[in-house]
């Protein structure tokens, strides 16, 4: 039993339950903080301060709560750590891992109020990766959410505007990065889309609205992911899942699951990433066209490779390639973006082309140890990449340079990184900024090389 004389007996009790010392908590919390993209570092003295009653600023309490949740295999709230500064405000955006659909309008409204890390209890939570299959999720949907503002009626032009905004934000994100699009898109969802979700509408029109809202919410999650705001991205993913269920949209549900898998793998949660990817592919197998199914299988391949499952990875990659060949002509697919050709919002999100497939092939080969094959696939991806997908081109170019350096080709890497810097000034993206930091770290040991020195000097001027 915790000593009540300790200023923070709740934290002391959690330390006793895990059997951790203060130094061990600091080490585990630092790992979770790094995953969140948080700059915080902790040590034994930090934990000692917490035990004396000091309460850190958000998102640190949420990071500590998530650290204990993972260790104990149960949900530990911020309040249970004794680190909460004030009682948390109830929020519809706080979705429990096993709850049915929440109020999507309230979730979008509340998420739109967050500026950076979300509400005080927000952290990237492993428990929120426990997502039901489509059959379970749809089976638990007893009735659509009843709009609460019956005085307002949704009109067809309003829905057409929302559908068009999907294309606008998609193109902006691809060309300039999630950092530019994230704030305006979150505000649009909170202030324009959420009220429409509360208004009355004829069933066919409401279905269109829900599906467009699903895609905008998915896209907002991706902009948060791209800007390395992982806790916020996860909340938007969950809101998008709720919208997809309400819209009776299994294809949209599958695409969101895939995005959650991409994020989980990027943060090192490989098992969870594979489960999500396989769930997405199973959902999309019968409900999505060949290109969309290929899009889903490509992520199965990457997630399986991260789990060192070579057979599953190569099988899924080959299946994705066959499906893409069936769905489109390789000679023309790379010339336009899906948003420029799709008749409606349903086909905009989850577009797939040879550049995307080659990028996934590169990830698979690198994870399986075939660096030369990965380099060749990245070069293929860059050749096929649509010209307006600047952010994807920058991410791919930076990855190519990293692999060229790893295989001993410094001069090639320097040349490739110069191409990366050509795109860099046009982008606002946490992932691209991280790629720049990685470039600098990799090149510093080679500062005696004239090309590397010149590249570092150019980067310093950006």
From TrEMBL:
Q: Where is this region: Disordered?
A: 82-109, 327-346
Top-level taxonomic group: Bacteria
**Gene3D superfamilies from the UniProt entry:** Tetratricopeptide repeat domain (1.25.40.10)
Residue spans of biased composition, Polar residues class: 329-342
Annotated Low complexity bias: 84-99
The protein in question is named: Transcriptional regulator
């Amino acid at each position: 039993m915790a000593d009540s004389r300790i200023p923070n007996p709740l934290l002391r009790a959690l330390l006793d339950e895990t059997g951790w010392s203060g130094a061990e908590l600091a080490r585990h919390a630092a790992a979770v903080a790094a995953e969140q993209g948080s700059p915080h570092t902790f040590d034994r003295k930090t934990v000692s301060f917490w035990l004396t009653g000091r309460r850190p600023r958000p998102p640190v309490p949420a990071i500590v709560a998530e650290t204990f949740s993972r260790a104990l295999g149960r949900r530990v709230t911020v309040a249970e750590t004794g680190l909460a500064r004030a009682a948390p405000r109830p929020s519809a955006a706080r979705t429990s891992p096993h709850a049915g659909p929440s109020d999507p309008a309230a979730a979008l409204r509340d998420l739109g109020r967050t500026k950076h890390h979300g509400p005080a209890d927000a952290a990237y939570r492993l428990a929120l990766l426990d997502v039901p299959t489509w059959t379970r999720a749809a089976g638990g949907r007893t009735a659509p959410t009843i709009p609460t503002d019956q005085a307002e009626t949704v009109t067809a032009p309003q829905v057409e505007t929302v559908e068009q905004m999907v294309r606008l934000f998609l193109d902006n994100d691809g060309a300039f990065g999630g950092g530019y699009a994230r704030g305006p898109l979150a505000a649009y969802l909170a202030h324009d889309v959420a009220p429409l979700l509360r208004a009355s509408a004829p069933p066919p029109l409401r279905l269109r609205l829900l599906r467009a809202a699903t895609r905008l919410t998915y896209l907002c999650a991706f902009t948060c992911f791209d800007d390395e705001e992982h806790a916020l991205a996860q909340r938007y993913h969950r809101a998008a899942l709720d919208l997809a269920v309400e819209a009776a949209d299994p294809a949209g549900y599958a695409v969101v699951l895939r995005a959650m898998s991409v994020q989980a793998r990027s943060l090192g949660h490989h098992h969870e990433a594979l489960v999500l990817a396989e769930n997405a592919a199973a959902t999309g197998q019968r409900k999505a066209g060949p290109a969309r199914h290929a899009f889903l299988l490509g992520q199965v391949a990457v997630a399986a490779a991260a789990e060192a499952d070579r057979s599953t990875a190569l099988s899924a990659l080959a299946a994705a390639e066959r499906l893409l060949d069936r769905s489109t002509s390789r000679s023309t697919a790379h010339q336009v973006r899906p948003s420029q050709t799709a008749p409606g919002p349903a086909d905009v999100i989850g577009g797939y082309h040879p550049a995307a497939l080659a990028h996934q092939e590169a990830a698979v080969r690198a994870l399986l140890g075939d660096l030369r094959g990965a380099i060749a696939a990245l070069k293929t991806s860059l050749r096929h990449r649509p010209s307006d997908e600047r952010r994807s081109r920058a991410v791919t170019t930076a990855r190519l340079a990293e692999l060229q350096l790893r295989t001993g080709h410094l001069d090639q890497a320097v040349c490739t990184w110069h191409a990366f810097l050509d795109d860099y000034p046009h982008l606002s993206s946490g992932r691209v900024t991280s790629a720049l930091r990685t470039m600098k770290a990799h090149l510093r040991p080679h500062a005696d090389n004239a090309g590397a020195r010149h590249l570092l000097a150019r980067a310093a001027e950006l």
